[in-house]
Sequence to fold (311 residues):
Amino acid sequence: MKVGFIGLGTMGGSMAYNALDGGNEMVVHDINRASATRHLEAGAKWADTPREVAEQSEIVFTSLPGPTEVEAVALGESGILEGMSTGKVYFDLSTSTPGMIRKIHAEAAARGIDVLDAPVSGGPRGAASRNLAIWVGGDKDVFDRCKPVLDSIGDKAYYVGPIGCGAIAKLVHNCTGYIVQAALAEVFTMGVKAGVEPLALWQAVRKGAQGRRGTFEGLAEHLLPGKFDPPDFALRLARKDVDLAVAVGREFDVPMRLANLALMEMTEAMNRGWGDRDSRVAMLLQEERAGVEVRVDEDVLNAVLEAERNG
Fold:
């Protein structure tokens, strides 16, 4: 199938490469042409504008930072819709808002163009390895027809519901994670300051119901060893996700107290100049307030994890 891909950053670059590797013809575009080097070497073609990508493709994918960029690329001058015609399909893989994708969908529908929102989850490693969830909102028949291409990008393409539902699922997922993050920082600093050694506390709570579901696993990657650089997912992008979820809550009159608290925490971290550090760096603020560090020597931590894997 003739696939167009716009946005070849950390996530998009890997997803586009996997789609190309899956046997699809590929046309690519990015504001930084150098990011397309490996795709072009593997047989993809370059297009100078989103419109040109759309003109040469049956299916177009975008992977962009947020709603502002999605709107500009889809609806702007020389944008995607200018190059699409009846029967073509546009999937947005970005983390955006249901309102934005519904706006694009409405304009595209008048031209006989199918638009679906398809945000992803799995991080850079998942994008590279294809261990990636794709949550799709839009026409179910179009989803079924295009699923082979989606399957070349991720191993868990899932139809959620009508247009906008994929975006909502992504915001629910991401916002939940950051609310839990704030709660973990609070309770772990309490536990450590009350007298429990950090490693013992972490090992103990992992044996409970929440721990068995993996809630605490992420602590071993960032907070416990104190590693926030380089980022797995930048704070500025994580804050954007929570901000989007809070905005949807306002739109539908849903109280989101913890989400707002998490958003304030992340905003304070942004004001420290931490926007390009890992999103979990905001947990350091709670350590400061509590006057305690929740740390485990990385070698000791790795030894514990290895013993558990082998045991």
